[in-house]
Amino acid sequence: MECDGINCGYKDAQVLYHVRITVKEGEAVVVFGSNGSGKTTLLKVLSGIIKPWSGIVRFRGRDITKLSPHDRVKLGIAFASDTRNLFLSMSVEENLILGAYTRKKNVKEGLEMVYHYFPDLASQRKKLAGELSGGFQRMLSIGRAIMSKPLLLMIDELSLGLSPKMVDKLGQALMSINRERGIAMLVVEQEVYLAGSMCRRGYVFDLGRVVAQGDVQKLLKEDTVRRIYMGV
Ligand SMILES: Nc1ncnc2c1ncn2[C@@H]1O[C@H](COP(=O)(O)OP(=O)(O)OP(=O)(O)O)[C@@H](O)[C@H]1O
Question: Which residues form the ABC transporter domain (predicted)?
Answer without folding.
Answer: 1-232
